[in-house]
């Protein structure tokens, strides 16, 4: 009979970037760490208020602390690519992080109690979003072990350590200015938006001083990136720990959303197996009105049941054939689609009736699609989403639509969208598409990685100091 291993209890301080896509996976990591250590989750003022309002984190999870940085709102919607807003956000958030890290007590110093936001237990380890790199360097100055948390695929870390001062900058009006792009081996470096270049440079400069990098990803799907990262001399001795996918076992939602989730479950249960097309461009960016109309036309032409997670203010751009039938979506048992302002994505992707995911390829959605074994029609909108889309294509689980984004090059017509959905989901006719077979294979690998003794389990145990089982 084996007894539970007891390890010295430490205090982990977790610092997310103020955006839901960054906060949610780090919070899930925090819940796992809290099973073995004390955890404090320190968030920007704007996130703190929303977390409390939405009850996303409970006192039973870990301690939640507000950093009074004065940030009024997270990067969202139309402001996500506004350079002034982005710079203002960074210039507001970084000083707050620095101030907190300079003030918290450690095992060897008392810090500055007046600015430690009530944190009195000495901090042993910091895990911070790598976008906060300029603030996290305080950990090195104070000799606090600090791990970068990489919320995207490992390509972002590769991009950071590859970035140089003479890297070309994209013109502010360039069509591709919405995306971070990685260089093709042996080819010239692609121009990068100025704000992203500055961010990657900061991350790259701070990387040699971290105790490790923690990824919301899985080692088995990152072997090519790891091989390239490890060729850089500055990475010698820095452990790369892939602990993903970090997805909440159950999402904390309001009563109203719970009722809607139940209705969605009932609707899905009525649909044939491998028949439903699920569409979501995420919660931040949306295609232009005329493009929303074309996607709507395509979904009708495909002739399969579909769910589209689309904010209410965007729904007016849908084809009339859809809007006229939206009044009693759940009541009409013969209704072949749902247009939802909020959708229970994890439930939808894991349901047997779901066949295809038309996705913006945010990293959390990318991981969820792989974990569920659902093939993807990739429609990246901005930032690292094109990298993520290409990453899925390389793994044969997706086909990407070219020319998309907040600064899209063209109007993608309905007929082209129809062809991609049908090819990805049903190989034209059957339910056995190439992308589906690949997605199922990767899903099995992710399940194995997160099981006891799997690569993600081993990496997490190393992070928190548990011996491998």
UniProtKB/TrEMBL annotation:
Family membership: Belongs to the UDP-glycosyltransferase family.
Protein name, entry field: UDP-glucuronosyltransferase
InterPro entries to which the protein is assigned, alphabetical: UDP_glucos_trans (IPR002213), UDP_glycos_trans_CS (IPR035595)
Keyword Transferase (UniProt): yes
Entry GO CC: membrane
Pfam families: UDPGT (PF00201)
Main subcellular localisation: membrane
Membrane topology: Single-pass membrane protein
GO MF, one annotated term: glucuronosyltransferase activity
Domain of life: Eukaryota
CDD domains (alphabetical): GT1_Gtf-like
Keywords for the protein's UniProt record, in alphabetical order: Glycosyltransferase, Transferase
Enzyme Commission number(s): 2.4.1.17
PROSITE patterns the UniProt entry points to: UDPGT
Enzyme class: transferase
Catalytic activity: glucuronate acceptor + UDP-alpha-D-glucuronate = acceptor beta-D-glucuronoside + UDP + H(+)
Subcellular location(s) of the protein: Membrane
